[in-house]
Amino acid sequence: MRSARMVSLLHATYRSGASALDIRRQWLRSAREPASVEHIFAYAADDSVSQKMVADGGFPAVETGPSGGLVTAVANWNAAAGMATGALLFVIADDLLPPMHWDALLWGAVDGLDPARVPFAVKVTDHDAARPSLRTPLRIWRANLLRHPIISRAYYERFGLFDPRFRGVYCDDDITFRSFRYSGVVNAKYVVLSHTRGAFAGDGRLTESQEKINARGEADHGQRVFDRMWPWYRLRPACVCLSPSAVRRGAGLSFTGVQFANLALGIPFQVLLWARNLRRGFSG
To answer: Residue 22's domain spans which residues?
Structure first.
């Protein structure tokens, strides 16, 4: 049964065992209303570590097909989303921790929007991002990247979560452009998540999962899928909509000063993307 105040945590896990369990505990302990939080593990059928963890604890979980040595993060998150009953769906990972009372902060950011009726995504922060400027227009994209997206129930019913053609890398780029162009994005950058291990935690090392998802072959696959989905005539208007501070509701674009600046930067932004792809093509 769906609850108007339920938040579903979609936790794709990979061979983490006790570490994943600790992440689950800390998300629930940090919530102001833990009874209104639904946590779902999702893992591949050949991940015996996660299988045992879930069986021993009797946790809500969904199992996807065997990985075959490939990254299954997107498949796992999508499977968890299909099982979720919450009004808000929140993508999390094995090394990600929330601030205290993260659920209250999230509902405060949504500020009266009905997740069952209004399709929107929420932008939170998981580490400091470089600020966009006239000298660095490409940072507009990265500063607004939905690294661990939160979506409303209405968004999920209209658009789904991640496109299943992705395996891991570039799925966040795709949902970022889709959200800014076709729905709305709520600015909740003051909700700052933290990483417990790996490169994002500042120790300079990748976890086993991060190594797999950031392998060259995975990056190439993700970029090929992204480039096919977002050719220039679709990417260009999406770039215009990227707004670091404004809240957009519905399909209409209300011009703020920031969005007007983004419109001015849209053409050089696209030229830089073309130049990058041409350079990569010539370099082999």
So the answer is: 7-232+243-254
